[in-house]
Fold these 4 entries.
Entry 1:
Amino acid sequence: MDSASPEGRVTPFSVTNRSVLAIAVPMTLAYLTTPFIGLVGTGVVGQFGDAALLGGLAAGAVAFDVVFTSFNFLRAGTTALVAQAFGRNDASEEQAVFWRAVVIAIIAGIVLALTAPLTSLAGQWFMSAEPRVNETLDAYVRIRMLGAPFALVNYAILGYVLGRGEGSFALFLQASLNGVNIALSLLLGLTLGWGVEGVAWAAVAGEAAGMAIGFVVLLRRFARQPRLARGRIFDAGAFRHLFVLNRDIMIRSLSLLVAFALFTRQGAQFGTVTLAANAVLMNFFIAAGFFLDGFAAAAEQLAGRAVGARYEPAFRKAVYLCSIWGFALAGTMTTVLMVFGADLIALIATAEDVRAAAIAFLPWAAFTALSGVLAFQMDGIFIGAAWSRDMRNMMVLSLVVFVVALMTLAPAFGNHGLWAALHLLLIVRGVCLLAILGPRARATFQSGAAAH
């Protein structure tokens, strides 16, 4: 869906720095716990001093993420539709959107868990790494996929919470999920010596804990609301609405994951040490991304609410404030990584050759925050407004640019060229979305005014 639904009226509301920060700060703190999972997992496996284990963990994580990020529409689509229903003051539709997402999550999660061996084989084929890396990848993926139903339901829960702008609740859920994951990674992976398998089991347990907590809280909330008719939840038109939005977000997510998978695969072609070094540095990029995702989450909720409320001034203010805060944070992140990145690398990797390679390419990873901030902000705005077709098209265009850059820069400049191609992907994606933001907003709000 690329516009608000025709029913409803204009519902003015104000967007201030306080309203942006009320969502962004808790969500930034929540997202901050997520990269620590990668850092802790990499650190646990890194203590074994084996580059093949680190490379296998990185490759396994990519195989897992390729699958799960393609289902990120469950979170993003739920956020958009709940935020728009929230803007229309339609509590029943908020709940109905949530249950539709849960139905999809459970079915898809069971299918993913059953097909874990196929995912592992596909990952091994794609990475074309050495045998010991493939063995580690296989062990990681087969275990992680057992938690697929829990993970996907958590997408639906987080999407509902973000759609309502409940940043503190989202922080509680993510901190609980990731806290269990981190604690068990240290216990199972390091203390008990399970290594990669321990890290994978810790992730499954964390997802199960997060889902249980989320359901307990939401079911109590829904019990105080009017009971939804089953026909409202399983309305065919509403499911079509959800699937149209989700289809485009899925294509966008798959395109992005293809780019990251190609990045990792090309790193593997440069050798196991380079693969392991890039894995360490990608944790920094992911950490910076989760910082920026806090303000992208604020943009999602506020933009979606403004579209649902048909109130363009709030939309424009949300775009402006979220972007200003995002760029300020990106600059801070780049500075911090440039100053302290080498020390962090030393903590994560014990192998000297991996450390040296990671430090050599540290500036490339540090500046991904600045090159990617516009893409993060535009993604949040376009997801919240449900302009899924535009987001999909610009992502595909950016992927084409990335592939061309990868084919030309990587052979000429090695790993430096590989990182340069990643920066081009981020910049092109952000600039393309920004170029169509104004016309898209005018068309959406003029259409809403005409319908009103």
Entry 2:
Amino acid sequence: MKVLVVGSGGREHALCRALARDPKVDALVCAPGNAGTAELAEPRPLDVADPDAIAELAVRVGADLTVIGPEVPLVAGAVDELRAHGLPVFGPSAAAARLEGSKAFAKGVMTAAGVPTAAARDHTEVEPALADLDEFGPPYVVKYDGLAAGKGVTVTDDRDAAVAAVRASLRGPDDRVVLEEYLDGPEVSLFAVVTESGAVLPLLPAQDHKRVGDGDTGPNTGGMGAYTPLPWASHGLSAEIVATVIRPTVDEMARRGTPFTGLLYAGLALTTRGPRVVEFNVRFGDPEVQAILALLSTPLTDVLSGRRAPVWRSGAAISVVVAAPGYPAAPRLGDPIRGLAAAGALTDVDVLHAGTRRDTGGQVVSSGGRVLSVTAIGSNLESARGSAYEAVSRISLAGAHYRTDIGEPSRMRHAADVHRADTAPGEDPTRPRKKE
């Protein structure tokens, strides 16, 4: 097969790594790609927001399969355009991609499907939104309705900050803001491949770290690191989420005449009332996918097509994001990155590029806020964590910053304590939960 991967971030580098290991894949193209993907796949220039350009490129390179990484082309209708050309593609239609493209739409689907989620209201005008803001009370949760590259969510105890977020979300005539109740408990990401027949193939659950600083401090980002599996979560958690969240959502989308196929991501909070959906995405999440695909044994094309359910290698994986100075507000770009070879030389470590390019002299420099996703696997999370941070220490990027607490044991003990509060007295949280 010849596979075209659309995108230029750490997610796309992880997809290219997995596809390069797939015995069915003998040629890869990544458009536009980055300095890391260029080592595995032929780079091609591409405007990822242009569905026509994506379809034209797939025809030109003779792609047997196109895998679309980012959300922007999915919401813009790239899958529809590719299908109109009779080209095989992995991803949802534009109508189905509204699950990510509009938080208000996703809330409506969840309500109709009976999916547990936070109470919410959406508004197009500032004053009614501010009235609801006070009704929900702190911690305030304010979400821009459309796409915002993972940074359109404000969670704060500061009312002034929440008011500012509401006003920033309603600058244009077509803007909408969603206000939600705050959900307590550790967050979990569950991805599932949904086939054309409606079958659901869940991947390993992972935990993302959205805040920029240690201890979940500072503003939200696109993600500063992730790990999988979750040693503190119940063994039946994935099956429970499929039964209560993924399956009802897929069924509701089919009932509406907009069947969902591709990758459905549920970001959840494990509250004291059980799992609650925080958001849906319609593509592989970054940086969770970097860790998840590192443990995949099954050829990726078999999983994407639904031919085989995923099989996982033993152990654990962790991904630590190295960010440019000033990220997420105003990242400084163009700084040289050194030590990549030394970091990648460590056993079971992949230095996945996210925001990189080669300058005119051939040197790898930063080109985005999240620059690298340093991903390691080990026999357990402690081993993987040690390898990942050792690799990070070998990389030099002026002013770079990263979180030091990804997969930290004390954070996992806290998550286990909160998760345990949702179990019956004497029940082991690592045992499958009984249905009520």
Entry 3:
Amino acid sequence: MSDTAIASSPAIAIIGGGPAGLMAAEVLAQAGMAVDVYDAMPSVGRKFLLAGVGGMNITHSEPLAPFLSRYGERERELAQLLADFGPDALCDWIHGLGIATFVGSSGRVFPTDMKAAPLLRAWLHRLKGMGVRIHVRHRWLGWTVDGSLRLATAEGEKHCKASATVLALGGASWPRLGSDGAWQPLLAAQGVDIAPLRPANCGFEVAWSEHFREKFAGAPLKSVVLWFADGSGKEYRKQGEFVVSDAGVEGSLIYAHAAALREEVARQGRATIHIDLAPGRDLARVQAEVAHPRGSRSLSSHLQSKLGITGVKAGLLRECLSKEAFNDPVRLAEGIKALPITLGEPRPLVEAISTAGGVRFEALERGLMLRQLPGVFCAGEMLDWEAPTGGYLLTACFASGRMAGQGVLDWLARVR
């Protein structure tokens, strides 16, 4: 596209080529609008592609009520976003791209080939056929005095006058893929109310001993139950697995409770989780197995044969229990069933899978238009919501993109 075309284009501008931005572009193009998508990276959908490397978890098959509950304090707002484009509608949309899906044993929904790339290729092919123009290596810098969009390119700064703008710039996790949070001061300068960005679906620091860190960093703890109670007495409990990292703990079981753990650390300076290393066996049975005569066998061999406590589980027991407790059968059994681990600060935002905070819903009108900036809409992870992994993040990004696209259409119909 030439400089002149950019400067005079009456098209709708989408800033950000992730799922939310591309979905907004599709809604608008389907309505016959001219659409330009601008992305700072050399290609679009980079975080989407990386998220699919280990298996593209697109959404979740659970009933809508528990699905919506995953959005915590923003359940009401996300329910509005998902009303027209929830998990079932998202699956139908994917099937319309020629991508088959299946439901895994956990209830998570995946493309049959488990990959994101074929889905993105099919989608971009459709968008191109609709006339959507995609401009990469175009970084948004804000607005000029006359309201034109400022775009940094390899050829220098360019200006674009758009009939409406959708901002879908992501949060601030994985900045090397484009979501660096650089939009915050640009919107704050316009008076937009923004909740501070914080890590979500993140690991937490633990003060491991050097010996434990060197021996077990990277080791997964499988088939355990994590539970903790926050300052208000609310209890959280879930079975799954997590990973001992060099800095602390991470993985799906930690991410599932990350929001509550982060808030507890913010209030108290720390949070204590408890790990059941032998789920399926009650405390009385574990006490009996621990106290069972072991003859000439070492305690480690005894715990392995009787309770399957070995490797990182055995190491964690020795790391978290005192020598006295470890040699007391009653206290040892209690530790196996409820091993306390004290968590410190969340790991840095750049390491997080996703972001909490962002443009507050209170700063938006219906259709996700900014109250302070008529004709400017926001979508995706830059909005103030969060959710655990499991397909909830992507589903809400897609849905918010659709709502922003429809919001643009509704606004243009009113002002034209």
Entry 4:
Amino acid sequence: MSIEEFPCLLPSTRGRRSGVRVIHAITPAEFGTLAERVGESGAAFLRESGFRGLVGELGLVPGKDGVAAAVLVVQAGADPFQFGRLAKDLPPGAWKIALPAGIAPDIAVLGFCLGAYQMPAFGRAARPERDIARLVVPAGGAAGAEVAQAIRLGRDLINAPPNLMGPAELAEAARTLLEPLGARVEIVKGRKLARAYPTVAHVGAGSERAPKVVIARWEGSRAGAKAPLLSLVGKGVCFDTGGYDIKPAAGMLRMKKDMGGAAIMLALAHLVMTRDLPVRLELRLGCVENSISGTAMRPSDVVVTRSGLTVEIGNTDAEGRLVLCDLLTEASETDPDLLIDAATLTGAARVALGPDLPALFSNDDAVAQAILDAGTSCGDPLWRLPLWDDYAAWLRSPVADLNNVAAKPMAGALTAALFLKKFIKTGVRWAHIDVYAWNDHYRSGRPEGGEIPVLRAVYASLLRTLPTRENT
């Protein structure tokens, strides 16, 4: 990608020109060195203004013609969000950053870009362009812009109004984003979809906007026939009314984000392709709308899945697992080295862990630990919940092989994961991520709206979890 794609970034050559001001990023332990960085008068001004050297503080140092420099207090590590306030809180113009030991340049660039993110206009009257703060990309920082680009793409998809982001639009967005990177993208629809993915078709039967399934295949330039196969699956419910088990009005307000799992997996695929990892990649997205009409699925329907298992519909608002199960079955058929799905699947996961901590389930301890460790090290955390098989009996049905909801009002995230596990082929290493994909309010680097968590954690874990094979 090109740095020019980000209005908030400037190429490193700009940093050698005059007129570029400096952001001094310091740790609390370096508070006593203020005078060395901004001069005695600048340090005195900061102290008298109440600047105390606490993590997150941003101080502006005056000069002859306005602001001369800035000081940001940070902590060592890989948290990009501590740089998120810079893009909006700094005066317009060109800036470069001086980082303390223990913080990589790409983390600062990523955080700056995430904080500069603005939701697309979506038909809103155009606003006059204004000058903004721009960061000169330091050496080693371009990798942060690649991650930011993937997150920006995903955020844009989630933030799109549901009338502008239906199943067809989501499928076409996947084609538009991935084909230029060399992916072969197929969009399955109509009778072919109904035959291959009967549960996806059943969920989408109530909407005039017909369901679509995206299948994208790609091989890295260094990936031979024996390169590891990574399979990604995402839930793309573009709007969820709950069906006949209708949600209350308040519950529908954010249901445009119910395609967040698809946005996350699409963003991850984009990053894998952009960085040309030596893998073979398959991506499957179930793009569908869960609506109410005379043709919509009903509670107590029985559906025959792609795997041959029959499912009784105990609740039409538990549609996400129906969208995923046929896609997981097909993904398992290719015997991937690693299969990962992401979905805004259950409110139970949010009750247990809140909005910022996605729930991780896996049938492989090494895969789970690699993702957890990567998330901790890069500031993109998850929390593992168990696939507690004793609860699988709660999914029994008197008329089908299983029900899509449990008989007990407990452990909803676990029973949803156990439902999905039924469709994973024995021997396939699998991880399921139950995610919120939304920021309820503004925080540094995390504006209110769609969010793409777990992307950095999962990406960082791939080289640890995918086997190394000799390419041919």
